[in-house]
Amino acid sequence: DLEKHLKTRLLNRSTRRLTLTDAGQSYLTACRRILDEVSEAERTAAGEYSSPTGELVITAPVVFGRLHVLPVITAFLAIYPQVDIRLTLSDRITQLAEEHIDLAVRIGELQGSAMVAIRVGSIRRVVCASPAYLAMHGTPEKPQDLAGHNCVTFEGLAAPATWSFGSGKTETTVPVRSRLQVNTAEAAIDAAIAGLGLTKVLSYQADAAVRAGALRVVLEPFEPPPWPVSLVHAGQGRLPVKLRAFLDFAAPRLRERLARSL
Question: How far apart are CA 7 and CA 11, in angstroms?
Answer without folding.
Answer: 12
